[in-house]
Amino acid sequence: RGLRLNGTKIEGTPFQVARDEISTFVLRCTLPDNLFEDRTFKITVAGPDSPIWLTPEDLLPIGNIKAAGI
Questions:
Q1: Is residue 58 a part of any domain in this protein?
Q2: Residue 69: pLDDT band by 50, 70, 90 thresholds?
Q3: What is the value of pTM for the model shown?
Q4: What is the pLDDT of residues 9-56, one digit of tens each?
Q5: How many Å apart are CA 17 and CA 48, to the nearest integer?
Q6: Is 36 domain-assigned?
Q7: Domain hosting residue 27, numbered range
Q8: Chain centre distance of CA 56
Q9: Cα separation of 6 and 23, whole Å?
Q10: Strand-pair category, 35-45 with 21-31
């Protein structure tokens, strides 16, 4: 989900998740003489992210009553 294998690297940005998710995957290496070796990996994507507040904590200012607001 958002990650891909590019040569010998895992690249990309994982998608947002509602809770921690652990994915298990296997990579196979082919050796000479038709021998192979498997290795199992796990990757954890943590979530959800905590909100980031951009405004300081305080009372909101009084606005123009006739002004449109969102």
A1: no
A2: low
A3: 0.56
A4: 999 999 989 999 999 999 899 988 999 999 999 999 998 888 888 888
A5: 6
A6: yes
A7: 3-45
A8: 28
A9: 18
A10: antiparallel
